[in-house]
Amino acid sequence: xxxxxxxxxxxxxxxxxxxxxxxxxxxxxxxxxxxxxxxxxxxxxxxxxxxxxxxxxxxxxxxxxxxxxxxxxxxxxxxxxxxxxxxxxxxxxxxxxxxxxxxxxxxxxxxxxxxxxxxxxxxxxxxxxxxxxxxxxxxxxxxxxxxxxxxxxxxxxxxxxxxxxxxxxxxxxxxxxxxxxxxxxxxxxxxxxxxxxxxxxxxxxxxxxxxxxxxxxxxxxxxx
Length: 224
What we know:
Layout: E1 4-9, E2 13-18, E3 24-29, E4 44-46, E5 49-53, E6 64-70, E7 76-82, E8 90-92, E9 95-99, E10 104-109, E11 115-120, E12 135-137, E13 140-144, E14 149-154, E15 160-165, E16 173-182, E17 189-200, E18 205-212, E19 218-223
């Protein structure tokens, strides 16, 4: 991020500091925009912008935003209001994507901050679990819903391409990562998504599952 270090404080301030001297370059108090104080996700740097999400945890009266700050000046290029934005923000071309504590997932325009589409799993979150960052692969957005379902969404429209729920799931999905695997002949390559579960079945043990990305077939399941 050049000479700047960006820090979100749970007192409601976002800071840009000189990474060598610690000198304050600029700051922004998100409380001026409503009932929000927290930064749970990592910032996303795109050219001269830095994007960050905010929230007030699961406070029913809280709000959140996606902010697009100009990196050097701290000027707000645009801001998009949501119920909460606790996840990392990910980018595909001219769109960015994020999730909320309410298990709503949204796509907004990188240049204007306008909403493209939104998707809700309909899951409740009475225990205030932190949703995990979505994963981009080609034209797909893959998310782990708080209902224990893996969803593959069309990144342009938000339509569900496929979804998979483990039959004996007893918890929520904790992480998604992407890896390359080789075909049986070692010639063709395909992608799979690795999903780590908080607990699985009645054993309470963590599980590691691998799904094929195009159709969501469960390829491997290991209980640690």
